[in-house]
């Protein structure tokens, strides 16, 4: 039975990924930081639906330098890591501060990189290890008011391209799924009018859903996806891609 760690499993995209992979027969480590109740409820829901699989909530604050080692120490068999943890600060770059920049870099990039270094041997055991990072179209296009966020999302793609070359011989793939405008609680904070304006610019005529992203992740986690490596796959409905 395959096992995956989903970083940010309490978020909308992380939850959608967890539900889809559970339906595919995976056991899951469900990472959260502050939203313990959400992660525990998700584990309980999935355990009832799939009693032969394991669903284990694990807590870690990825802005903490000790978090990667803490997480790695709680993981046993591991076939995949999905990095769906995320946060942003919506501000002019001139108004940002070093703490905000540090938080974004640790949550999206440095924390996951440090963790992957520690679990590489576990991922290599099956010869079909999978790593998928949830990036952003802004890693390609950039976004005013989210300069640091855009920077770390671009860096995720750079990391995937380079790391994939090191671990391909171990059977490990490293890819990025880069969403466009997705209908999540975080994006809902921009308000209906702003989202309607964005929707009008999307060729597909709608916002994406967390399920759209989970489908792309599922595809990359499949054992038959071993020749897709070092790629950034844009799931945007044609928007800004």
What features would you describe in this structure?
- By secondary structure, this protein is an alpha/beta fold.
- It has a single domain, classed as 3-Layer(aba) Sandwich (Rossmann fold), CATH 3.40.50.
- Helix content is 45%, strand content 15%.
- The protein contains 9 helices and 7 strands, in the order E-H-E-H-E-H-E-H-E-H-H-E-H-H-H-E.
- It has a 7-stranded parallel sheet, sandwiched between helices.
- Strand 1 (3-7), helix 1 and strand 2 form a beta-alpha-beta unit.
- Helix 1 crosses helix 9, helix 3 (67-73) packs parallel to helix 4 and helix 4 (98-124) packs parallel to helix 6.
C-alpha end-to-end distance: 36 Å
Helix content: 40-55%
Shape: globular
List the quaternary state of the chains: single chain
The poorly predicted ranges are: none
Name given to the CATH homologous superfamily: NAD(P)-binding Rossmann-like Domain
The top-level CATH class is: Alpha Beta
Structural class: alpha/beta
Rg is 17 Å
What is the overall pLDDT average?
94
Question: What's the number of extended β-strand segments?
Answer: 7
How do the helices and strands follow one another from N- to C-terminus? Answer: EHEHEHEHEHHEHHHE
Beta-strand proportion: 5-15%
Integer count of domains: 1
How is the main sheet built? 7 strands, parallel
Write the CATH fold name: Rossmann fold
Second-tier CATH architecture = 3-Layer(aba) Sandwich
Order of adjacent strands in the largest pleated sheet: 3-2-1-4-5-6-7
Number of helices: 9
